[in-house]
Every structure is written in structure tokens, then in C-alpha cells.
Amino acid sequence: xxxxxxxxxxxxxxxxxxxxxxxxxxxxxxxxxxxxxxxxxxxxxxxxxxxxxxxxxxxxxxxxxxxxxxxxxxxxxxxxxxxxxxxxxxxxxxxxxxxxxxxxxxxxxx
Length: 110
Description:
- The protein is mainly α.
- It is built from three helices and no strands.
- The chain is elongated, with a radius of gyration of 31 Å.
- It starts with 5 loop residues before the first helix and ends with a helix.
């Protein structure tokens, strides 16, 4: 039968305390190294809508400049208009998906 003396108990106690301190240190490092929070969904959506609106205004300005004769780059005008159209279609599809998700949630039984 193995008998554990007081010096062995103290050594085990010190070992446990050292392991506990190491774990605390590792946990604090892990907490401090957490990735910065990502922007909220609403902020990201607002930013995307602002960018699409800016694209549409730029396309309108480009078309107006072509109409007034300030530029003769018809390909650039068509590209700007196509980008604005795609942005609008994307916005419309996102709105439709959000509305469908909202309606699905509202019709769920509680």
C-alpha cells in the first residue's frame, strides 16, 4: 500500500495551483485576442443601399453629361446604367427575401 506523506501532498497542491494559474493566463489571452465585432446587419445593409444609391446618381449624371454633349463615351454611359440597374435588381431581390422571411416568421405557430 502506498502512503502519501505531507511533502507529496504539498507538491501535488503546488502543481495544481501552477496548472490553475496557467489556465487562467491562457483564458485571459484568449479573451483579449477575440476578433473585433463585425458591423451589425442593419449597418451593413444601410451601407450597401447608400452605395447603390450613389451608383444610380453617378449613372444619371453620366447620362446627363452624354445628353448635353459633355462626353461622347456611350460605352461608359451604358456600363454605368447597367451597374445601376443591377444594383436596383439586387436591392429588390434582397427586399423580397427579407419580406418572405418576415412573413414566414409571422405565420409560425407559437
